[in-house]
């Protein structure tokens, strides 16, 4: 695919004098789609339905001011100093309160490790467990940032089918059996059981129990990533997998969606022996997470009615979810999509003639961005699907974005009807940044 | 060494149901000495000469207040949001100013990547380059946190001899030649050329030029870790290695020692192709560094006379270095030690009869802590050396600490003289946490 004149990877290699020095794992490091997002989404004329940025303007800034002021007055020199690798005890105690809202009531602050956002915990758990060639089980589709991290440790992802009730237990059993026959080593099941990113679906209670049973029986650890659990819309969320099994689940939580991602405070709750190793991994990675930010979070939780604040977020995102659902009904009734009970994302199934990756440059030209489904599969699937996020734009912008998207899609479908193909390539396409994006 | 009744690693393994699931690299993960430090040093009655914590009380808190207030007023919703994986452009521009004080004048903000402290950059560079069995060259002794990170990627460290002028070029050449004969793959030279942690020595200008020549000739990348460069006491520091070679040096810098470690803002300046990969590695690790903290740093640098503030730190640490040097002269004239021109640490050479690791529990009992030399070698050396840090305790506490240390050392030497051995083991020793520690 590379032509002599291209300024592509091949040329880049030749220009990099250290090309032969990199570790084997670095060969798999592909240009991230996260950066492209920021480039696209930051242009104000584009309606971005691509990112996963929370609407932080819904957070009254005086709450942060107040938390900061108290922190500096009462813990200033501690907040400016190094801390322990596990995180400060005060925030770990409060994290127990947050997790109790997800049904986790048997945890100890000793088993919580705070990290630089929950992505960091995801990375360190991967570092602790994954040898090259190991297999991680994950929903089909699954969070793009997790797929990238697993790849960075040279692990393979085996996707497990989902439906509107989340991961399908029978598919999980079949996938495990198949991999075992092949002699593969399965290290853990990675799941976003609540308001899945990108699919928007939630694993039912019955299935949670089944999935836990299967993994216990097969001695497969579960890595439960739950950034959206408290952002439910229609009814309170289901109990976390971790609430039903303390021994076989590593639980990841985050303040990014219920407070602020700019603070980068997340956490892992892990069985004792794993937690010990996780602390060592944090120390090797960053010495200690930011005490400054942990204290801001601590004082915020102490001073504000944070549960009421989360209720406010729910109202904001519920309205946006509804705006997106209505706009899709109005402008793209011929397609199907999920209607999530919480979280940030709607998963849209296109018709077989449409290719979300190929269509993206045209969409950006029409001033709307989305994330092609291919970003959420490790195996090239997802061309006929896309993720739309409703978290950041206002309801009006969401409607505008969906209207623009409908123009693009309907234009494509007209072409298919007329010429039997949607492969309309223009010189512009090569100049538009390919596929955006997602951030968390 | 493990007895049946021990509550040791062997028992721990049996209790951990996931013991067989860990990655190969996790086997080398040893209980970190950093945590033990915090346990020891936090007891107020102990004079800790063990840690590497900067004296953050020397930073006027109103400067942080002012930076925070402006940040929230002018960039609030940006500071609370996700950022790009490379870090915000504003802080990267200012980092150029900081680096220009180290002689680096040809850098571009495009080639700077901000990280969660420079330890994070160290970790990610290691992840990019190190395969299991690769070799990293490092000073003998070398920063304990770097040794831990290299080990976490299953690399081996080959120590290169130093003297009062830092790394010895001839020793570097010999080590390289020896390793090449053995067929080993050398990935980079890790060096703390300014006010070495732990040795306190500085690589001379002549040697910097020689080391750069040797590494260029041998096609060995240099990883220059420079957290202390601006904290000089007697005369301005020497130009960074990076200032003389933009192609073969990755430079690591940090705000931990010139502002606050609690913010966890560090950076890497890397050749173009490496920088591109480093950004991808940041994204896989944490999505993006904290925008909140980057903005605090940005506004601090914009608003305050930060160079004058650094001059203030120099005065604080110079006084403490002098206090330690004088106390050693007074109480332990029979030993030899380095007198650093900057930084945080003095390296003490004990007599052959003394074992710093074995002596530590007795020192802690006498209410003084230090870091045994063994922490700074990957090969078990350092038993007859110790690191004393003068950064955190006041001059009075430093004098008290050295006096206590002299009591312990002289007590040991008396024993040696009387009985011909210092191996005085009591039941207490097993109960005292073994060897502390260092943080950065």
From TrEMBL, chains A, B:
It comes from Pseudoclavibacter terrae. It comes from the Bacteria. InterPro entries: Aminotransferase_I/II_large, Class-I_PLP-dep_aminotransf, PyrdxlP-dep_Trfase, PyrdxlP-dep_Trfase_major, PyrdxlP-dep_Trfase_small. The keyword Calcium does not apply. Keywords: Aminotransferase, Pyridoxal phosphate, Transferase. Belongs to the class-I pyridoxal-phosphate-dependent aminotransferase family. Homodimer. GO terms for biological process: alpha-amino acid metabolic process. GO terms for molecular function: pyridoxal phosphate binding; transaminase activity. Residues 70-404 form the Aminotransferase class I/classII large domain. This is PLP-dependent aminotransferase family protein. Residues 420-440 are annotated as: Disordered. Its cofactor is pyridoxal 5'-phosphate. The keyword Secreted does not apply.
């Amino acid at each position: 695919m590379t032509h002599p004149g291209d300024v592509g990877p091949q040329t880049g290699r030749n220009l990099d004098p250290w090309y032969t020095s990199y570790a084997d794992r670095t060969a798999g490091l592909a240009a991230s789609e996260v950066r492209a997002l920021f480039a696209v989404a930051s242009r104000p004329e584009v309606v971005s339905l691509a990112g996963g940025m929370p609407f932080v303007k819904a957070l009254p800034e005086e709450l942060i001011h107040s938390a900061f002021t108290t922190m500096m007055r009462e813990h200033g020199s501690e907040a400016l100093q190094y801390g322990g690798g596990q995180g400060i005890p005060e925030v770990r105690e409060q994290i127990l309160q947050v997790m109790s809202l997800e049904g986790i009531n048997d945890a100890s602050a000793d088993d919580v490790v705070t990290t630089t956002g929950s992505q960091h915990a995801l990375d360190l758990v991967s570092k602790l467990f994954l040898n090259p060639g190991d297999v991680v089980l994950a929903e089909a589709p699954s969070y793009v940032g997790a797929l990238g991290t697993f790849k960075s440790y040279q692990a393979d992802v085996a996707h497990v089918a989902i439906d509107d009730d989340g991961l399908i237990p029978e598919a999980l059993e079949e996938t495990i059996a198949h991999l075992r026959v092949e002699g593969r080593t399965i290290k853990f099941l990675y799941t976003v059981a609540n308001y899945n990113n990108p699919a928007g679906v939630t694993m039912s209670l019955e299935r949670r129990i089944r999935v836990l049973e299967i993994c216990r029986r097969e001695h497969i650890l579960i890595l439960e990533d739950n950034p959206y659990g408290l952002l439910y819309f229609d009814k309170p969320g289901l109990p976390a997998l971790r609430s039903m099994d303390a021994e076989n689940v590593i639980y990841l939580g985050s303040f990014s969606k219920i407070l602020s991602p700019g603070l980068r405070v997340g956490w892992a709750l892990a069985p004792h022996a794993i937690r010990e190793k996780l602390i060592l991994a944090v120390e090797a990675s960053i010495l200690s997470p930011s005490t400054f930010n942990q204290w801001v979070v601590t004082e915020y939780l102490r001073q504000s009615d944070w549960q009421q604040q989360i209720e406010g977020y729910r109202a904001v995102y519920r309205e946006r979810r509804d705006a997106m659902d209505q706009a899709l009904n109005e402008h793209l009734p011929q397609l199907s999509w999920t209607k999530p009970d919480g979280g940030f994302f709607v998963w849209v199934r296109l018709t077989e003639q449409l290719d979300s990756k190929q269509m993206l440059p045209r969409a950006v030209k029409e001033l709307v961005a989305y994330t092609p489904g291919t970003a959420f599969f490790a195996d090239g699937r997802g061309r006929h699907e896309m993720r739309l996020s409703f978290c950041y734009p206002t309801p009006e912008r969401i409607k505008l974005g969906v209207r623009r998207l409908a123009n693009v899609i309907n234009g494509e479908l007209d072409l298919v009807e007329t010429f039997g193909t949607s492969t309309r390539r223009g010189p512009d396409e090569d100049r538009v940044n390919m596929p955006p994006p997602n951030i968390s």
